[in-house]
UniProtKB/TrEMBL annotation:
<protein>
    <submittedName>
        <fullName>Uncharacterized protein</fullName>
    </submittedName>
</protein>
<keyword id="KW-0732">Signal</keyword>
<feature type="signal peptide">
    <location>
        <begin position="1"/>
        <end position="20"/>
    </location>
</feature>
C-alpha cells in the first residue's frame, strides 16, 4: 500500500514539474505567482470536508507538489536576476504577501489536520509538507540575503511560518 502511495506522489511531482517551469522570469512576478498559487491552494483546503475528501486531497497533493517545484523555480529566478530586476521596495511588498499567504495555507491545513490525517492521503501530504517546510526555510534565507532592504521583515515573516508549522505538529 505504501509503495502505491509513493508511486502516486512521485508521479504527481513529475507531472507538476512541467507546469512549474512556466513561472514568470522576474523575481517580482515569480513571488506574485507563488502568492496566487498559495492562495488558490488555501481556498481548496478550506473547502475540504468529509464529502469531498478523496477528490480534494488528491488535488491538494498535486498542488503542494507543484508549489514546491514553483518555489524552486522562483529561487532560480532570484539567482539569475540582474541587479535592475531587484527593486527592493516592490520585492519587500511581494515577500510580505507571500509569507502572509503561506501562513494562511499552513493555518488552514492545521484546521483540517484531523480530517487529513485520517485519510489515505495523510502520509503523502505530511511528507510533502515536510519537504515544503525545508524549501520555505531555504527560500526565506535566500530572500533575506538578496533583498537586504527588508531582510528583518522577511526573517520575521518566515519566523511566523515557523510558528504556524509548530501549531500544526502539536
Amino acid at each position: 500500500m505504501q509503495f502505491k502511495v509513493l508511486t502516486i506522489v512521485t508521479s504527481l511531482l513529475a507531472a507538476t514539474s512541467v507546469q512549474a517551469a512556466a513561472l514568470p522570469t522576474t523575481p517580482l512576478s515569480s513571488l506574485t505567482q507563488l502568492t496566487t498559487q498559495t492562495n488558490a491552494l488555501t481556498s481548496t483546503v478550506k473547502g475540504l470536508n468529509t464529502n469531498n475528501i478523496l477528490t480534494t486531497l488528491s488535488g491538494v497533493l498535486g498542488t503542494v507538489g507543484q508549489l514546491i517545484s514553483s518555489i524552486g523555480t522562483g529561487s532560480n529566478t532570484f539567482n539569475n536576476a540582474s541587479p535592475t530586476q531587484l527593486n527592493q521596495a516592490e520585492l519587500c511588498t511581494a515577500i510580505s504577501g507571500f509569507t502572509t499567504a503561506q501562513t494562511g495555507l499552513l493555518n488552514s491545513l492545521n484546521a483540517k489536520l484531523g480530517l487529513i490525517s485520517g485519510s489515505l492521503f495523510g502520509l503523502p501530504i505530511t511528507t510533502l509538507l515536510s519537504i515544503l517546510d525545508g524549501v520555505l526555510g531555504t527560500f526565506g534565507t535566500q530572500l533575506a540575503s538578496q533583498v537586504p532592504a527588508c531582510s528583518t521583515a522577511t526573517t520575521a515573516g518566515f519566523a511566523g511560518l515557523d510558528f504556524a508549522r509548530l501549531k500544526k505538529t502539536t
